[in-house]
UniProtKB/TrEMBL annotation:
Gene Ontology cellular component list: cytosol; mitochondrion
Organism from which the protein derives: Acaulospora morrowiae
SUPFAM superfamilies: LuxS/MPP-like metallohydrolase
Keyword set, alphabetical order: Metal-binding
Example of a GO biological process term: peptide catabolic process
Entry protein name: 1933_t:CDS:1
GO molecular function: metal ion binding; metalloendopeptidase activity
UniProt superkingdom: Eukaryota
Keyword Glycosyltransferase: no
InterPro entries: Metalloenz_LuxS/M16, Peptidase_M16
Length: 215
């Protein structure tokens, strides 16, 4: 790992760089007000957090950091844990595809059916239209064939059926994501949050009276 390959001198430079960033003074009154108000709003009144963090950072050795990484962060660690949230789309599986991909697919298909059609003709026709697999695509293709080709109605319908079959085969080939049996599916977020165990309320690190006594 990078930590193992890092020399002690390089590690100390990284530590000092982090300390310098921590101790950086606010550049304006707004930044300073936000820093103090954040401690007040949290309810912990931990105004000395930066100084405490710096003090703890100075104590962390390279071996400590390496052990922490190998135990809690490294994927090969037996005790490593992580939270993974997967969002399930509410839209149907028939997803929108880019116009360029649809035009190329249609052009290849129509050429294979023996039609003499230029890709520029397809591009011009579909440039202002949104292509979606399903009935809308069939209607647009039917409109295109009527305007640009002297085909009989039954011949056009046969082509439409073949396009529908082609799209269905392509959709069946798309990989479907399946959840692990141990995963939890959350249908109602509000109800799920209500079942969560409440954590302890915020308690001031130092009571306000002690700050007043220092004034």
């Amino acid at each position: 790992t990078i930590i193992e390959e890092m020399s002690e001198e390089e590690y100390q430079k990284q530590v000092q760089s982090l300390i310098t960033k921590k101790l950086e003074k606010p550049k304006n009154l707004t930044q300073e007000a936000r820093r103090y108000w954040g401690h007040i709003d949290s309810g912990y009144y931990n105004f000395d957090q930066v100084e405490k963090d710096v003090s703890e950072i100075r104590k962390i050795t390279k071996s400590d950091l390496l052990e922490f990484y190998k135990t809690l962060i490294c994927p090969s660690s037996p005790v490593q844990r992580k939270l993974s949230v997967h969002m399930r789309s509410q839209k149907s599986a028939q997803t929108k595809r880019s116009v360029q991909i649809e035009i190329n697919d249609l052009h290849t298909f129509l050429i294979e059916q023996g039609l003499n059609i230029k890709v520029e003709e397809l591009t011009t026709f579909f440039s202002s239209k949104e292509l979606i697999n399903g009935p809308k695509l069939e209607d647009l293709l039917r409109e295109f064939l009527v305007e640009h080709n002297k085909l009989k109605k039954d011949e056009i319908e046969d082509l439409i059926k073949n396009v529908t079959k082609l799209n269905s085969e392509k959709d069946e080939g798309d990989p479907k994501l399946e959840m692990d049996q141990e995963n939890e599916l959350i249908e109602d977020v509000i109800a799920w949050k209500r079942n969560m165990k409440l954590g302890p309320a915020a308690v001031p690190v130092v009571y306000f009276s002690e700050f007043v006594s220092k004034l």
